[in-house]
Write a structure and sequence with these properties.
Rossmann fold, 15% strand
Length: 181
């Protein structure tokens, strides 16, 4: 099947927007990728589709719990498998966290959304070391820069956390990047 066939199968779209196809191919070829695309330009699809196509789980680092929930709900809306996407953050109970981890370990989960603060927790690092990670996606990557309007210091430690967990390609995405950022 061609990439457009998978686009139709998983998301119901007939064509890619802008550079989506080139970006997705880059990730599928295992290359680190930076994406600067306007709001509404289809950034999420750039990591969601390759996550569906690759072995393992994509770790999506996202700054907002509400954004994670929206993304997970959207992916689950396209899939028959509820465990295909999860988030792991402070809004979950211990039982919910255990259920997420069970789905990930059972290879059901293709996308696991975490906040940078969650990625820094030792228990999560140890858990993520146990799984095959297809790639890391850093959503709202402008937060890495101390010149961004919503700088979060935890974003600055993502690289060291990735190195500790296990190297895999990284895709960083943002709609907000001034020349300085």
């Amino acid at each position: 099947m061609e990439l457009k066939d998978y686009l139709k199968q998983y998301f119901g779209f007939d064509t890619f927007k802008g550079n989506q196809e080139a970006i997705i191919k880059n990730i599928l070829e295992g290359r680190d990728t930076f994406v600067l695309m306007p709001t509404g330009g289809g950034k999420s699809l750039c990591y969601q589709l390759p996550a569906m196509l690759q072995d393992g789980t994509a770790i999506v680092i996202s700054p907002l719990i509400a954004l994670m929930k929206n993304q997970v709900d959207a992916i689950r809306g396209f899939s028959e498998e509820e465990g295909v996407a999860h988030f792991l953050n402070s809004s979950l109970s211990k039982t919910e966290i255990q259920n997420v981890k069970e789905d990930v370990l059972a290879h059901k989960t293709k996308l696991l959304y975490v906040a940078p603060e969650s990625l820094a927790k030792d228990e999560n690092i140890q858990f993520l070391k146990q799984i095959k990670i297809s790639f890391y996606a850093i959503d709202e990557a402008h937060c890495i820069s101390e010149w961004g309007h919503d700088f979060r210091p935890e974003y600055r430690s993502i690289r060291s956390r990735v190195d500790e967990i296990g190297r895999a390609p990284i895709i960083a995405l943002t709609a907000t990047a001034t020349p300085k950022v």
